[in-house]
Specification:
By secondary structure, the protein is an alpha+beta fold. It has 7 helices and 9 strands, in the order H-E-E-E-E-E-E-E-E-E-H-H-H-H-H-H. Strands 1, 2, 3, 4, 5, 6, 7, 8 and 9 form a 9-stranded antiparallel sheet that branches.
Length: 231
C-alpha cells in the first residue's frame, strides 16, 4: 500500500502541467520532455510520450509507446514504439515492436522525487539534488535536507561540549531535574528553529545551505561562549 501510494503521489505531483490536453506525469531529462501515463500496475505504465528538443529549443523528434515498463536496471522497456524525427526539410518515421529506453527519469526517480528528503540516503539525496539542478527543477527542499543532515551531524560535537558548563559552571549547583529541563529546552528549541528555517528556505527562496547551518552555528556559538565563561 505504501508503494502504491508513492506511485500515485508521483503521478499527481507531476501532472500539474498540461500539454496538448494530455494527462499523466511530466518530467524533464536534459533535452527530453517525458510524459508518463497513468500506472497500470507494478512497474508498468499505460504509455509514454517523449519529446526531444534541439539546443536552440526546436522540436527534434516525437515518440510514443503504448506501454512503458521499468526494468530492474532502471531503464524503460517500451512496446509499440513509434517516432517521428524532424531534420530540416526531411521527416523520418520509425516503428518498432519494442525498444529499450535509458533515462535518468526512471520509475525509481519518480519515487525519489516524492519521498520525504529526510528519508533518503545522503548519497542518493545528493544525486537527486544534482539531477534536479541540471534540469532546471526546484531542489530547495532536497538541498536543505542534505545540508541539514551534515549540520546536524556536526551539531553532535557541540551538543557534547554544551554539557561542560552543566558540570563545571554555575549550573552544577542546580538539581538534576533543573539541568534536565534546561537540556530538553535546548534540544526542543534547536528542533523548532530548524523546522522554521526549513519553511523559510522554501517560502522566501533563501539559501538552503545557509539556513541549514544556522541552528548549528548558533548552538556552537552558545557552547563556546558558555565554556569560555566557565573558564
Amino acid at each position: 500500500m505504501q508503494d502504491m501510494a508513492k506511485r500515485q503521489k508521483a503521478l499527481s505531483k507531476f501532472s500539474n502541467i498540461s500539454f496538448a490536453s494530455r494527462g499523466g506525469a511530466w518530467v524533464r531529462d536534459g533535452n527530453l520532455l517525458i510524459n508518463v501515463s497513468q500506472q497500470s500496475g507494478g512497474a508498468e505504465f499505460g504509455g509514454m510520450h517523449i519529446y526531444e528538443l534541439t539546443p536552440d529549443h526546436q522540436l527534434a523528434s516525437v515518440a510514443t509507446a503504448s506501454t512503458a515498463s521499468v526494468q530492474p536496471d532502471g531503464s524503460w522497456k517500451l512496446t509499440r514504439y513509434a517516432a517521428t524525427h524532424f531534420g530540416g526539410d526531411v521527416i523520418e518515421a520509425e516503428h518498432q515492436a519494442s525498444r529499450d529506453f535509458s533515462s535518468a527519469v526512471g520509475g525509481d526517480f519518480l519515487g525519489l522525487t516524492v519521498a520525504a528528503p529526510r528519508q533518503l540516503e545522503t548519497r542518493v539525496l545528493w544525486s537527486l539534488v544534482q539531477h534536479l539542478k541540471e534540469n532546471g527543477l526546484d531542489a530547495t527542499s532536497q538541498e536543505f535536507a542534505f545540508w541539514s543532515r551534515i549540520a546536524r551531524t556536526t551539531a553532535i560535537l557541540f551538543t557534547a561540549l554544551l554539557a561542560v558548563p552543566f558540570v563545571f559552571g554555575s549550573l552544577r549547583a542546580a538539581g538534576a531535574g533543573a539541568r534536565l529541563l534546561i537540556g530538553v529546552l535546548i534540544g526542543v528549541t534547536f528542533f523548532f528553529v530548524q523546522r522554521v528555517l526549513e519553511s523559510g528556505a522554501v517560502v522566501f527562496d533563501a539559501s538552503p545551505m545557509v539556513l541549514a547551518w544556522t541552528p548549528t552555528l548558533i548552538l556552537s556559538a552558545a557552547a563556546l561562549l558558555l565554556i569560555a565563561r566557565t573558564r
